[in-house]
Design goal:
Helix 7 crosses helix 8 and helix 12 crosses helix 16. Among the domains are: 145 residues, 3-Layer(aba) Sandwich (Rossmann fold), CATH 3.40.50.450; 73 residues, Orthogonal Bundle (Arc Repressor Mutant, subunit A), CATH 1.10.10. The chain contains 16 helices and 12 strands. The strands form 2 sheets. It has a 9-stranded mixed sheet with strand order 1-2-6-5-4-3-7-8-9, sandwiched between helices. The chain has a 3-stranded antiparallel sheet with strand order 10-12-11. It is an alpha/beta fold.
Length: 375
């Protein structure tokens, strides 16, 4: 089988071909097809018995392009996640215009981790680029994946900071994953694929087009718990991402700057409109903490929030603390000792650090606080 996600081994090649054909149909997108797919109608049914209003547009899928997509998926690092896959991110799946499927190059499991989006100017100040790099490094060391758009400027600085912090970073592209835009970020894209994932709703062979970038931006915000804008002019595309985040009920954060800096004006506008002003990465993490618990604790049967006492007594949390001891230890070691999922360990470590039970050390290590009595 092609590089299809391991959690859906029963997806036959014919079913995969049908999914790819849906995505390749010209003029038929998520807004049209999602309501039908969510009723349980399969891609095969849509292609063989399309609704009358869609029959003309769905009559002749470009099967030759589907065959090219299948060849791209023969690479073990290449994946396709249809919106019905359990590996498809829940945060994105809830959107009415969620992509029909995602092409992924790299480690597809990283899409299920807690993420913070970072966006900003393509031509930032030196200080702005350094700020983005520093924030992303802190997020990565705290167990939060950094998601951005692989553009020059703040996007690039954010990806690099996350890689320096030893955490995964996800790059959502406005092209097919067989090409890199801008080309100057080719080496960075390869590094991201090896330490995170490249993600796109566009099939291989898709070139960059103006209308693709807003579509990419809704995925960047849709994957994330919140969006941080580092530097942005008043007409910056980053403000589109921030607006989409607000519409998706995501947190929006902005870093203020000098009133004389035109690249700060977009952030100042966001703050006036209700975005949270932040000065440190810790400010962001404090706001995101409630949302992080959904990556650790299973929801109550009635959907109610577990009480604080239940969170304190969570057995996985106690298992993690017991596995730490009082010597510096890496996340990988804790995953090995506990058998817990890497994303669960990372999220729990973040919450424990914010509560003062553990602290982070250089080199991506964690150590239990000497005065900790959480167990």
């Amino acid at each position: 089988m092609c590089g299809i996600a391991s959690s859906i081994p029963d997806l036959s090649e014919e079913e995969l071909r049908n999914w790819l054909a849906l995505i390749r149909l010209p003029g038929v997108g998520p807004a049209t097809l999602n309501p039908l797919l969510r009723k349980g109608i399969t891609p095969a049914q849509l292609l063989t018995q399309p609704p009358p209003r869609l029959s003309e547009r769905m009559r002749n899928p470009p099967w030759e392009l589907v065959d090219k997509d299948l060849r791209w998926l023969e690479n073990p690092a290449s994946h396709f996640l249809p919106c019905t896959s359990p590996d498809y991110p829940e945060t994105l799946k809830r959107l009415p215009d969620a992509p029909l499927g995602l092409f992924v190059l790299g480690q597809a499991q990283n899409l299920r981790t807690a993420q913070i989006a970072m966006v900003g100017s393509r031509n930032p100040s030196r200080g702005g680029a350094q700020t983005a790099r520093d924030f992303a490094r802190h997020f990565a060391r705290s167990g939060i994946a950094v998601t951005s758009g692989l553009a020059m400027g703040i996007d690039t600085a954010s990806h690099r900071g996350a890689l320096e912090g030893g955490g995964p970073t996800l790059a959502v592209t406005a092209t097919g994953l067989d090409r890199v835009y801008p080309a100057s970020n080719r080496a960075l894209a390869h590094e991201i694929a090896g330490n995170g994932a490249l993600v796109s709703e566009f099939p291989p062979g898709t070139s960059p087009r103006r209308g693709h970038f807003p579509r990419r931006n809704r995925i960047i915000s849709g994957l994330s718990l919140g969006v941080l804008v580092v530097e942005a002019a008043l007409k910056s595309g980053s403000l589109i991402t921030a607006r989409l985040a607000g519409e998706q009920s995501r947190e929006v954060f902005a870093i203020p700057g000098s009133i004389h800096n035109p690249l700060a004006r977009g952030c100042h506008r966001l703050i006036r409109e209700g975005a949270k002003l932040v000065e440190t990465a810790a400010d962001v993490l404090e706001e995101l903490a409630p949302g992080l618990e959904s990556f650790i604790l299973a929801p109550e049967p009635d959907g109610a929030e577990p009480p604080a006492s239940a969170r304190q007594a969570d057995p996985q949390r106690q298992q993690l603390l017991a596995a730490m001891g009082y010597d510096p230890v890496s996340t990988d070691t804790l995953v090995e000792r506990t058998g817990l999922a890497p994303e669960a360990v990372s999220s729990m470590l973040l919450l424990l650090e914010m509560e003062g039970h553990v602290s982070s050390e250089p080199g991506g290590l964690f150590i239990r606080a000497q005065t900790d009595t959480a167990s």
